[in-house]
Write a structure and sequence with these properties.
By secondary structure, this protein is of the alpha/beta class. The chain folds into 4 domains: 2-62; 70-147 and 157-180, Translation factors (Elongation Factor Tu (Ef-tu), domain 3, Beta Barrel), CATH 2.40.30; 193-319, Rossmann fold; 332-422, Beta-grasp domain (Ubiquitin-like (UB roll), Roll). The chain has 8 helices and 19 strands. The protein has helices spanning 2-34, 39-62, 159-166, 202-214, 236-245, 276-282, 296-308, 362-368; strands at 70-80, 87-94, 108-113, 122-127, 138-143, 173-180, 193-198, 221-227, 249-255, 270-271, 289-293, 316-319, 342-346, 351-355, 386-391, 394-396, 408-410, 414-416, 420-422. The longest helix has 33 residues, at 2-34. The chain is globular, with a radius of gyration of 23 Å. Bound molecules: NADPH dihydro-nicotinamide-adenine-dinucleotide phosphate (NDP). The site of NADPH dihydro-nicotinamide-adenine-dinucleotide phosphate has 28 residues, from α4, β8 and α7. NADPH dihydro-nicotinamide-adenine-dinucleotide phosphate binds next to α4, β8 and α7. It comes from Roseibium aggregatum.
Length: 424
């Protein structure tokens, strides 16, 4: 009921704002038409009206008119996206038949999956890969993670991605938390933007591109899409369709291991890895906003190279799920003697343990000592591992996607800054 009222209220506010902007735009347009002023002025007012709408929408989303906790969604379509068959899109609609709140481009959904043999629901985050303006269904695009080729049979594949691919089918219902995440495109900016997607990491940046397209943005956009070959690449037709329609959007594909069937110049633009040297071939300068999502090695090397090229940190936006791969902050202990340790007390479990730099994050330390802490993305995005800090300070090894509640810390990306007591 509250949810329905919230959504209804949000929709009414958005509609009222839309009508207001439309009214202002129409009357200004009429005046300009009468006075026979040129089309550039009309375009300017059109842009202003659109910007006002975008700002209102961003404010509404930031204020959180979505849903609390988990909500049931039905898988209405499952679509294999690549030749290898290891990447599938899942289209989701609310099982309650209610409204689908919009999201910010780049955000993700958090799933709670009842995987058999697991002591508790498995929590995983997947980026939304479609346009934020689509209010009929959400889409996530998931790669089935296989064990490394030389791992033998002892190492399992990705727990959650295997569950999605092998167990979930059209008609099934899943528990989903509302869209969240701080890796979002700044829709208010007018600066040129570079969107970089490596492998299935293209999903959040594809959503960003679609948001710009839907908004009719005139921003200069360069989309770089890195994949192994034509067998692995996904959703490129959707990007190509936008790039062909819009002069301001430029699309380049890189294959690191093209097969014999891949033709350079037709299927892809460059062989090899995406590096800053490649970017320099296509970009006039480093003065762009960069949004990067891909495999950890690519994220680390590319963000480092961008910094060396002189791109300020404020213009480098990235996201990685999984153990922190792009370090933005020095671990507190890196400035200390390796032998020095601090005491970590897990008060609820009644355990006190020493922490050294090699112990990693507080979540790693807790798990190694048999302390169960619910966790999801392990990258400071989903907030599942937020735990009350009763005493002491922590330092984050990567930027948290959003600040945890006052007095809580995200254990998956936190290291102790001295002796600490945690409510775990
Ligand atoms: N919101 C998020 O945070 C999301 C994150 N992801 C992450 O994106 C990643 C995508 O994985 P996957 O699809 O398997 O990607 P791939 O392993 O297929 O990698 C994509 C491309 O990047 C290349 N690459 C590897 N290392 C580098 C490097 N150092 N510099 C430049 N390019 C490099 C690969 O080359 P080669 O393989 O030939 O070495 C390949 O061509 C996953 O780690 C996933 O967790 C995915 C979705 C959403």
């Amino acid at each position: 009921m509250i949810l329905a009222l919230q959504i209804g209220g949000g929709t009414i506010v958005a509609l009222a704002l839309f009508q207001l902007c439309l009214g202002v735009y129409s009357s200004v347009a009429a005046v300009f038409r009468e006075r026979r002023l040129d089309a550039r002025h009309l375009q300017h007012f059109n842009d202003l009206a659109q910007a006002a709408l975008r700002n209102a929408e961003v404010d509404r989303l930031k204020s959180g008119t979505t849903w609390a906790g988990k909500r049931k969604f039905r898988i209405v379509e499952k679509r294999v996206e690549n030749k290898c068959g290891d990447i599938c899109s899942f289209y989701l609609q609310p099982h309650d038949g209610g409204e689908l709140p919009p999201f910010l481009p780049g955000q993700f959904l958090t799933f709670e999956l009842p995987i058999s043999d697991q002591p508790a629901p498995v929590i995983r985050c997947y980026s939304l890969s479609d346009s934020p303006s689509r209010l009929d269904r959400y889409r996530v695009t998931i790669k089935k993670l296989s064990p490394p080729p030389d791992a033998g049979e002892t190492v399992p594949g990705g727990l959650s991605s295997t569950y999605f691919h092998a167990n979930l089918k059209e008609g099934d219902v899943v528990d989903v938390q509302a869209p969240k995440g701080g890796f979002v495109l700044d829709l208010q900016s007018e600066r040129p933007v570079v969107l970089i997607g490596g492998g299935v990491g293209l999903t959040p940046v594809l959503s960003m591109l679609k948001a710009l397209d839907d908004a009719g943005s005139h921003r200069e956009v360069h989309f770089f899409h890195a994949a192994r070959s034509g067998d692995d690449i996904v959703l490129c037709d959707e990007i190509r369709e936008i790039a062909e329609r819009r002069n301001n959007v430029h699309y380049r594909v890189l294959y690191s291991a093209p097969t014999d069937a891949c033709v350079e110049g037709r299927d892809y633009d460059c062989p090899g890895f995406l590096t800053v040297d490649v970017l320099k071939r296509y970009l006039a300068s480093s003065n762009y906003e960069f949004y990067v999502c891909g495999p950890p090695q690519m994220m680390s090397s590319l963000t480092e190279q961008l910094r060396d090229w002189g791109v300020p940190d404020s213009d480098i936006h990235f996201e990685a799920f999984g153990p922190a791969s792009v370090k933005t902050v020095k671990s507190p202990a890196s400035s200390r003697e390796a032998a020095e340790s601090v005491q970590v007390e897990f008060s609820r479990s009644g355990k006190k343990v020493s922490w050294h730099e090699q112990d990693g994050t507080l979540l790693d330390l807790a798990e190694r000592n048999g302390i169960r802490v619910a966790s999801g993305c392990r990258a400071g995005n989903c907030g599942t591992c937020a735990t009350a800090l009763k005493k002491g300070d922590v330092t984050y090894v990567t930027r948290p996607a959003s600040s945890p509640a006052q007095g809580s810390v995200l254990m998956c990306i936190a290291c102790p800054g001295g002796n600490v007591i945690l409510d775990a």
